[in-house]
Design a protein that fits this description.
Structural class: mainly beta
Strand content: 35-45%
Number of helices: 2
Radius of gyration: 16 Å
Distance between the termini: 47 Å
């Protein structure tokens, strides 16, 4: 069976979109809490062994607070915001790089004044994200900076 391969070249379009790349909702099943975020899978080829995705959240939007076995790498491509990584909250801006180790809680939030867009490189084969239990959330909120970050919804 022939699997259709993406074109070798796809032009960039206005508004951080690309030819022949579907603009999709962030999570298909809607089981995790997030706000105003979309994704585009830029590259998904088994021979590469990884997938490059572009996520974008509207001003004030955020990704899911999650962790998973697989590590991934993020480059902020557009805007400003904050990133929770473990017990630290850091401001992020265009071209910053964030390495997310295995089993570390993480979440991205756009500032209120502008969208936040980032490239995310991850393994093609990967485990499903885990959401925090009430006890894990309480433990995270014991760190004042993390509590402030998580309460801004």
């Amino acid at each position: 069976m022939d699997i259709e391969q993406p074109p070798l070249f796809r032009s960039a379009q206005e508004g951080f979109r690309w030819d022949a790349v579907a603009h999709q909702p962030y999570k298909q099943d809607g089981s995790a809490p997030f706000k105003d975020i979309s994704r585009q899978v830029l590259f998904h080829q088994d021979d590469l062994g990884c997938e490059l995705r572009y996520f974008e959240m509207d001003a004030g939007g955020y990704s899911t607070l999650e962790r998973h076995e697989h590590a991934h790498a993020v480059m902020i491509l557009r805007g400003r915001g904050e990133c929770l990584l473990g017990a630290k909250v850091r401001p992020v801006r265009q071209f910053d790089l964030v390495s997310i180790p295995s089993m570390v809680w993480h979440q991205f939030r756009a500032s209120n004044g502008e969208p936040l867009g980032f490239l995310c490189m991850v393994n093609v084969l990967r485990d499903r994200p885990q959401l925090p239990t009430d006890a894990e959330l309480a433990e995270m909120k014991a760190v004042p900076a993390v509590a402030r970050f998580l309460e801004r919804r």
